[in-house]
Amino acid sequence: MEKEICDCLSNETKLLHEPYLEKDAYNSLNMPVYHAVAYDFETAAQMELAFTGKSPEHVYSRISNPTVQHFERRVKTITNAAEVISFNSGMAAIANTFMTVAYSGGNIVTSPHLFGNTYSFFASTLKDFGVETRFCDLTKPDEVKANIDKNTCAIFLEIITNPQMEIADLCVLADICKKRGVPLIADTTIVPFTAFHAADFGVDIEVVSSTKYISGGATSLGGLVIDYGSFDWQHSKKLNYLINQSILSAFSAKMRMEIYRNFGACMTPQVAYMQTIGLETLAVRYERAVKTCKNLAEKTVKLPNVFSVNYPALPNHPYYAVSQRQFGEYAGAMFTFDLASRKAAFKFIDNLKLIRRATNLFDNKTLAIHPASTIFGTFTEETRRSMDISQNTIRISVGLESIDDLYNDIAQAIGK
Ligand SMILES: *Cc1c(COP(=O)(O)O)cnc(C)c1O
How far is the CA of 28 from the centre of ligand 1 (A)? Predict the structure, then answer.
């Protein structure tokens, strides 16, 4: 073990100085990239201990890897979580989470306002395995309550839906979950854990696409599952046999020891290295991007031919109050606006000179996309309508450029 750091320090400081589990031979200040598949042992007895989980050595990198473990430990430090497990994409984190909690005959209660692949995962992939997904309005407590029954495996939501920008009241949902013995699982990709403390609002498990803010400029795909250890898994028909079997929660034990290994969607050491560097600057990058985003949204409201600007930190937004309560002054570095038609939206995209035409969120570069024809382009018009995806909407993911340069580009692209 490397030298300890003082418990008196803030999590932001601790994150930067997270000690290695083993002293590095060369005193490297960055965690080395252990691009190894397997690890050598001195004796058969030591191998047995490690392979049966009685000693902590790494044995095979699909199960654990020193560089990946270091990344997970840093996330654990900054979130105060009970356990953190990393994956090779956000979708892998989501899929593995539901492979852990759901079972044939079980159901998930969620909203139709979801990231496209997450929607498809619930509506199609899980359905084929006998798991029902109940899409309802999570901002209506009575609807949520009516959809929960004894086979409900989880309530799942995105904390700010994209591109609709719907925000459900987490404390209300957490209260329902607690009373009914159901875990609350949230995709928090849109506001990073340096700015939003999910556990304070009753979220039991947080899933994150670390591809977005954390990777530090769209360097790599990655995903995180953050278990706060707050849910009592004796309420889970599937996982209750695992309670008190190890220091891990029943959920993390099932995921770490079985699901994670069997699906093999582990984060690679190279990615863990890049995303560890990304974590170090996460808070400052987010601070800059959200300030620019709010500013840009306020200025875009005043432009001619812009019909509505959708950003929850603007005072006239329908979810302004709940947004302020949950996320403070800002609400993620993404906003949308509507133009007159699909044709006007395409023309705007084509006219951009600085802002890049690309999907993805929270790159260091600002990105624009027309969600209806791209991310949701293969869905039927009926499904798009049920998800409130409009043909007139443009989505902007705000990066680190100067506000004036971004505003000028948007203004000229609308004006032309
Ligand atoms: C991007 C995204 C995902 C999927 O993450 P990948 O890393 O692309 O697999 C899931 N949820 C949200 C909210 C996202 O923005």
Answer: 32
* CATH code for the part of the protein at 283-415: 3.90.1150.10
Cβ burial 297-316 (10 Å sphere, 16+ → b, else e): bebbeeeeebeebbbbbbee
Q: Which of 189, 363, 367 to mutate to test the pocket of ligand 1 (most atoms within 8 A of CB)?
A: 189
> Does the C-beta of 163 come closer than 6 Å to ligand 1?
no
Q: Which fold has domain 11-271?
A: Aspartate Aminotransferase; domain 2 (3.40.640)
Helical segments of 10-115, H only: 11-16, 44-51, 66-79, 90-101
Which mutation among 162, 196, 209 tests ligand 1's pocket best, with the greatest number of atoms within 8 A of CB? 209
Domain ranges of the chain: 11-271, 283-415
**Predicted pLDDT of residue 6:** 85
Which backbone phi and psi does 149 adopt, to 5 degrees? -140, -170
Q: Which pTM value belongs to this model?
A: 0.96
Q: Does the pLDDT at position 183 exceed 90?
A: yes
State both tokens at 416: 């032309």
Is the minimum distance from the CB of 147 to ligand 1 under 6 angstroms? no
DSSP track, 78-100: HHT-SEEEEESSHHHHHHHHHHH
Please list the residues that pair with 357 across neighbouring strands: 368
211, 218 Cβ separation under 8 angstroms? yes
Cα(40)–Cα(271) distance, integer angstroms: 23
